[in-house]
Design a protein that fits this description.
With 261 residues, the protein is of the alpha/beta class. It contains nine helices and ten strands. It has a seven-stranded parallel β-sheet, with helices on both faces. It has a three-stranded antiparallel β-sheet with strand order 4-8-7. The structure holds 2-phosphoglycolic acid (PGA). 2-phosphoglycolic acid is lined by residues 37-39, 133-135. 2-phosphoglycolic acid binds next to loops.
Length: 261
Amino acid sequence: MEVVPLAGAQQVATLAADVVEGVVRRRPDAVLGLATGSTPLPTYAELIRRHRDGTGPGYGRVRCFNLDEYVGLPAGHPESYRATIARELTDALGIPASRVHGPDPSPDRLATAGERYEAALQEAGGVDVQILGIGTDGHLAFNEPGSSLASLTRIKTLTEQTREDNARFFGSVEEVPQHVLTQGLGTILRARHLLLIATGEGKAEALAAAVEGPLSASCPASVLQLHPHVTVLADDGAAKLLARRDHYREVYDAKPAWQGL
Ligand code: PGA
């Protein structure tokens, strides 16, 4: 795992955008794994800015797969993750909705939603780079503490803490759906490159547990320790409790230029 402590959220966004663009330049038909939440928004804004400036790669052949989706929202709800990703990123990059996939929360097809999403991911050839945030409770996508480290896409119940964290996107905590469809931890591990971004002190405890704590379903993000290609970009606040923070920075500063992230 490569951990890169950075001074601020904009540096995180710049480097994360570099990684995503690098993948698309190397492979114009890349499969991008997209995350919602507040953390990736500066990265998405940076990608859009570069696209509009004409310095970004072409996204015409890219396909996208979202990490998760709420269950129980009316179709087209602005806080559904399908709508959020279109609004915050893919529409502005010119990626048509037909090339952006998410778990299907249709009420009458929920029982098969997980296996259908796994099949779609497989058919696309897997995810080249998966953007990830981390929950204050250590969740990865919507895999809450206790999730199987080998889990695949399925329905899950959110913790009260996550519903409270996400209440800011809704009118109140009661309006945050209780159920979600989420890629499993085993699904996420199949992506070829995992890019975890964490900003703000609120993430410091969860990030330290994920990166330096024991591998445990009690901290789902610790599953990253099993993956051969993980990049963690963290600002000062999120990196605050990392015991080896100075060493991670030395490693990054001494990195051979040819190596990339
Ligand atoms: P946030 O959410 O980016 O809104 O903090 C992260 C997550 O829940 O994974």
